[in-house]
Amino acid sequence: MVGATTDGEHHEQSDALDRAGLRHVVAVLSIVQIVSWGVLYYTFAALQSSITADTGWSSVAVTGAFSLSQVVAGGVGIWVGRHIDDVGPRAVMTAASLVAIPGVTTMALAPNLAVFYIGWVLTGVAMAGTLYPPAFAALTHWGGARRVRALTTLTLVAGLSSTVFAPLASALDDWLGWRQAYFVLLASLILITIPLHWWGLNRPWRGAHPTTHDRTVAAVDRKQDAAATARSSPFRLLTLANALAALAVFGVIINLVPMLVEQGMSRNLAALALGLGGLGQVIGRLGYARFAAGTTVTSRGVIVLAAVAITTASLALAPDSAELLIVLGMLLGLARGLYTLVQATAITDRWGPTSYGTLNGILTAPALASSAVAPFAGAALAELLGSYAAAFLVLAGLAGVATLLMLGATPRIGTTSGLNAASPTTTTGR
């Protein structure tokens, strides 16, 4: 019901941290996001060509293993979201960091493709519990009225992950080889993320309160409201738009280095260009608050997805100029940085914070599946069409379709189905 304050919202407010507590959690999550994204995701983008050259496995087979990890992350992520709603992020994020150890180790030692794929399956489980969705759920719950600023800060800092880890992974590859490079980076993940998840996220969570009959009934009501929201047309359109956008965005990210090499860049310069795209993300997030204040929830989604489509097409059509390609990569990073925050606030801007973990898990699962298919699809399209530039044009078209779908992805004001649907405070820019 519009304007209603649910039991879930009372808990959200009672568990919201004070400024000092929230700053502490944001700092913890920012550090672990930089390292987790860097080791589990962006390192592969920088090393995939070396893996292919060293092993003799095809680029399609290698990216297929990475894609499988994203499928696994999407499926496990639904459970992760529900679990965080119930008990909080501390245990699940710590456990996920532990799972990364056998995952990366198996992948880095793999003597054949089968073992390589097994390693990436385990790494996918680790991704589900360590990357943005669980961190967003934590800050949405603990941030209270300050959650948007907390989310912006997190993504602003974490956006530097590719800037740090893509060139670092490339340098370690030159020095030690891709297998040893992974082991060095895994050591940083073990030493940093596991203790920070366990001790840094030890904060009160509503699921830790004693269960009473009233709270049990309220929990059932929240689950029913979440199910109704997930079945609504705006939610389905939003989910489809996110899935197509993820296919375009991550198809470009993972295939950007080989695309730039195809254009005549050296591998190290292409890796640097990928890292500078991360700097573009940071710039975009710095301006998100002002951008959000001047747009509605619908218009900002449309604007950002249109920017993704245009910059992706521009990369495909640009002349062979290293400087121009790097600038376009940074502009794409800027759009990508804005879109991360558009996606992070998509649930609360439309339906409020209640059951955020559950709904965000459902929303992001197809997007994670798309991001899983994206590296494989990008490489396969390049092979089929004869160039990465042609593949990027197809990906730009998918982003254009997502832009059109986003137009219908906002609940009508006054609807009573779902969670806090379309109240004026959640549909306008902040």
UniProtKB/TrEMBL annotation:
Membrane-related topology note: Multi-pass membrane protein
InterPro entries noted in UniProt: MFS, MFS_dom, MFS_Riboflavin_Transporter, MFS_trans_sf
Cell location: Cell membrane
Transmembrane helix as UniProt keyword: yes
Assigned keywords, A-Z: Membrane, Transmembrane, Transmembrane helix, Transport
TM spans (from-to): 25-44, 56-80, 92-110, 116-139, 151-169, 181-201, 237-257, 269-288, 300-318, 324-347, 359-382, 388-407
The UniProt record lists the keyword Acyltransferase: no
Domain Major facilitator superfamily (MFS) profile, chain residue ranges per copy: 22-414
UniProt protein name: Multidrug resistance protein MdtH
Organism: Nocardioides aquaticus
Organism phylogeny: Bacteria, Bacillati, Actinomycetota, Actinomycetes, Propionibacteriales
The gene coding this protein: mdtH
